[in-house]
């Protein structure tokens, strides 16, 4: 009988295929399975020389080809297909085997699946995998959840195939059950915010300065050599510098301005609402995509709604470019601070004990939000957990240094009629967080007036209610 494979991958579309190749290239023997066996055959035909593959046609054959405890990676479309594969797989497995869902599952589904498989003596690992097609092949950032026991056998393999930065793998055990998929979801949410902020910076410079895409490509390329250095800034320069072959126009000008989404940004916001964590940056980014995708409404508004009565000139172009850079950086700190708050809140809610600094470490390579910036976040969590990333000394000072520029940019955008929901809401969040007093006191007063919801006082303990409809005396609530 042939040697048993060390790991199996079921689901060989772009992601599964590349993950299987990555495993094989790193010296692991990989059993292959896909519902439609043509994908299995084409993988072996095209890349069979990259390592040891064991192609199989049926799930029974696939399971029989694996050494025990079995490690079975499921890389199929998230949702019902994942449940279908798990349901078919589970009766074929033995106690102690590990099923790893590397798809983009909702963390609540992962919690449900983990509990169901645990009942049957199986480990279920929901692993977030970032970096798209290329990451899966060359080294993704991997965020595995599930039991610590399953990580002991799986971790070394995943750490080997993950991206490596300064000799450290971009993979760590995030925490039990759905922790890995939760962190991957927030990662994607932050990615939405990051992209929206970059898009606003582009819009400010394009509209506010009349800069051409080619000029902007140079500006973003320059920004990429400073604090903003990141994959997303790098590809922004590339996209802006690209010319459409068919029309000869700048590529960005021939692309329809309606952003699409697959849903992880929406999940992040929905979950944040449940946890009571303000993730305004991610929410604004998600809503900005939604707004862009309503052409009829935009058409009607364009015809009906006036903008500012006069153009707002920029007096010093270089100074404005630098202001926008600083505003982008400060807004980005806010978006990350909020995402980190969301992970901290979920960690407390579900008892995950997530090491937040380690999340920055594993996002430094292999994923879409990889950036120089993440080293600073890692440092911020090295010794203590700051109340907010914004108050960690490095970020506090960086944002303080840029805040006047940030205010000028948001004011300019408002006066010039350039929509900057990300920049503006980030600044509002910053100001709300640092405010001595918030108008929440007035909200409490109104709630007590119409609903007798009671309020607390600044000067003594307890809950109170004012008899608004009577003599307006105060009683205990
Ligand atoms: P898709 O999400 O396009 O899924 C295609 C795979 O699912 C094929 O192998 C297909 O089998 C299989 N499948 C389906 Br559809 N229904 C099935 C069922 N009922 N039973 C068994 N298999 C079924 O593939 P992908 O783009 O490679 O993504 C895989 C996972 O990775 C997804 O969860 C995705 O969200 C996640 N992800 C994707 C990216 C990315 O950049 N694409 C990045 C990070 C994570 P078939 O060949 O027989 O139709």
TrEMBL record:
Role summary: Catalyzes the oxidative decarboxylation of 6-phosphogluconate to ribulose 5-phosphate and CO(2), with concomitant reduction of NADP to NADPH.
Residues binding substrate: 104, 130-132, 187-188, 192, 262, 289, 447, 453
Binding site for NADP(+): 11-16, 34-36, 76-78, 104
Family: Belongs to the 6-phosphogluconate dehydrogenase family.
Entry-linked PROSITE patterns: 6PGD
EC number(s) reported in the record: 1.1.1.44
Leading EC class: oxidoreductase
GO biological process: D-gluconate metabolic process; pentose-phosphate shunt
Natural source organism: Actinophytocola xanthii
Catalytic residues in the record: 184 (proton acceptor), 191 (proton donor)
InterPro entries on file: 6-PGluconate_DH-like_C_sf, 6PGD_dom2, 6PGDH_C, 6PGDH_Gnd/GntZ, 6PGDH_NADP-bd, 6PGdom_BS, NAD(P)-bd_dom_sf, Pgluconate_DH
One Pfam match: NAD_binding_2
Keyword Ribosomal protein on entry: no
The protein's annotated pathway: Carbohydrate degradation; pentose phosphate pathway; D-ribulose 5-phosphate from D-glucose 6-phosphate (oxidative stage): step 3/3
Catalytic activity annotation: 6-phospho-D-gluconate + NADP(+) = D-ribulose 5-phosphate + CO2 + NADPH
Subunit structure, as described in the record: Homodimer.
Record-given protein name: 6-phosphogluconate dehydrogenase, decarboxylating
Residue ranges of every copy of the 6-phosphogluconate dehydrogenase C-terminal domain listed in the record: 180-469
GO MF entries: NADP binding; phosphogluconate dehydrogenase (decarboxylating) activity
Keywords carried by this UniProt record: Gluconate utilization, NADP, Oxidoreductase, Pentose shunt
């Amino acid at each position: 009988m042939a040697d048993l494979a060390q790991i199996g991958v079921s689901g060989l579309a772009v992601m599964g295929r590349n993950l299987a190749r990555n495993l094989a290239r790193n010296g692991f023997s990989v059993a292959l399975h896909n519902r439609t066996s043509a994908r299995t055959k084409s993988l072996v035909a095209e890349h069979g020389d990259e390592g040891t593959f064991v192609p199989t046609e049926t799930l029974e054959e696939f399971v029989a080809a694996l050494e025990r405890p079995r490690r079975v990676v499921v890389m199929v479309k998230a949702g019902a297909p994942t449940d279908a594969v798990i349901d078919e797989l589970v009766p074929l497995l033995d106690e102690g085997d590990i099923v790893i869902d590397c798809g983009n599952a909702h963390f609540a589904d992962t919690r449900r699946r983990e509990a169901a498989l645990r009942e049957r003596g199986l480990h279920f690992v929901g692993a977030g995998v970032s970096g798209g097609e290329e990451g899966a092949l060359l080294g993704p950032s991997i965020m595995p959840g599930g039991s610590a026991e399953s990580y002991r056998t799986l971790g070394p393999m995943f750490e080997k195939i993950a991206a490596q930065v300064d000799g450290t793998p971009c993979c760590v055990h995030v925490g039990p059950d759905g922790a890995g998929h939760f962190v991957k979801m927030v990662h994607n949410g932050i990615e939405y915010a990051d992209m929206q902020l970059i898009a606003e910076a582009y819009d400010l410079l394009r509209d506010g300065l009349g800069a051409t895409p080619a000029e902007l490509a140079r500006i973003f390329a320059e920004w990429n050599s400073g604090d903003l250095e990141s994959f997303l800034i790098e590809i922004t320069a590339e996209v802006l510098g690209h010319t459409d072959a068919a029309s000869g126009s700048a590529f960005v000008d021939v692309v329809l301005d309606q952003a699409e989404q697959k849903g992880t940004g929406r999940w992040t916001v929905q979950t944040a609402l449940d946890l009571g964590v303000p993730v305004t940056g991610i929410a604004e980014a998600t809503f900005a995509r939604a707004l862009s995708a309503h052409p009829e409404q935009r058409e009607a508004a364009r015809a009906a709604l006036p903008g500012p009565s006069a153009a707002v000139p920029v007096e010093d172009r270089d100074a404005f470019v630098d202001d926008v850079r600083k505003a982008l950086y400060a807004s980005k700190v806010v978006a990350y601070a909020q995402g980190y708050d969301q992970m901290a809140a979920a960690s407390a809610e579900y008892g995950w004990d997530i090491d937040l600094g380690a999340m920055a470490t594993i996002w430094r390579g292999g994923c879409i939000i990889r950036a120089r910036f993440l080293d600073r976040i890692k440092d911020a969590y090295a010794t203590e957990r700051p109340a907010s990333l914004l108050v960690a000394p490095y970020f506090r000072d960086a944002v303080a240094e840029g805040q006047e520029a940030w205010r000028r940019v948001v004011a300019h955008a408002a006066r010039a009629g350039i929509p900057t929901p990300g920049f503006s809401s980030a600044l509002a969040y910053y100001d709300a967080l640092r405010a001595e007093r918030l108008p929440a006191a007035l909200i409490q007063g109104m709630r007590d007036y119409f609903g007798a919801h009671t309020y607390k006082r600044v000067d003594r303990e307890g809950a109170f209610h004012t008899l608004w409809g009577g003599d307006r005396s105060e009683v205990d609530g």
